[in-house]
Design brief:
There is one protein chain. 40% of the residues are buried. The chain starts with 8 loop residues before the first helix and ends with a helix. It has 296 residues and is an alpha+beta fold. The protein contains 10 helices and 9 strands. The strands form 3 sheets. Strands 1-2-3-5-4 form a 5-stranded antiparallel beta sheet, sandwiched between helices. The chain folds into 2 domains: 105 residues, 2-Layer Sandwich (Phosphorylase Kinase, domain 1); 175 residues, Aminoglycoside 3'-phosphotransferase, Chain: A, domain 2. Helix 5 runs antiparallel to helix 6.
Length: 296
Amino acid sequence: MAPAVVVTSALAEATARSADPARREWLAELPQRVADLAEQWRLEVGDPFEPGGTVSWVAPARDADGRDVVLKVAWTHDEGRDEAAGLAVWAGRGAVAVHTCSMDGRTTAMLLERCRPGVELRTRPVDEQHRVVGDLVRQLHTAALPAGHGFRTLAQMCEAWGEQARAGHERAPGVLDPALVREGLVLWDELPTTSREQVLLCTDLHAGNVLSGRRSPWLLIDPKPHVGDPHYDVVQHFLNCERELHTDPLVRAVAGVTDLDEERLVRWLFARCVQECWRWPVLAPVARTLSSAALG
């Protein structure tokens, strides 16, 4: 019989909202999955971190060598498809190390380095967040892509998101001026194709996905790797700096600590705000504010 497994609140709620019965079946099978992995990898598994993720169950564990690790058991989904492969490429430089990985049908399981004390970067002042994000992107973007890698491109991600945005703006036509929507989405399509540099991106780098550690002061977790323009990787950080988002100095502050081109960062931020504001209307005034600099 599988041991009792506490289902985290975020995972339970997201699964209950899902229209996919396979996800509910997966959650029902989760205790046995955890038991099998604990036996296979010789782990003592603790209670999961709360509130947890919406598609994964994550808990501290100790392996047979007494090493502090984290067991992540996830519903296999498109966004997180290459998480383990990306972490392997970064090999602990700026990101948590991945010790082993198993993909079995609907389940992706990883044994990861544990960050201690594991404090989220978002608890720190925003100026410090900028500096840390700048340091992390420099580390992450120096990793060499392996020959014949299977990572998807940023252009592919932007194409899919652009289609969603066009449909979303049709359903919510009053959120932003139609001319700005057209120009912003054209720019959204163009930017991934005009970069002279192609690096392995996290694509979800923000202060909630960066934890304090002992081996390194700050480490990235939960990447969604794609290959593309290095400027894209700080866009999500911009969006998560809610108070500062409406001010242009935010872009200059981050550009200054990343060695990235300020004008291109502004263009990416504008395009991302246009792409997203049909369902996140607070981004519409940001898009208007940035439009002159982005399109000038």
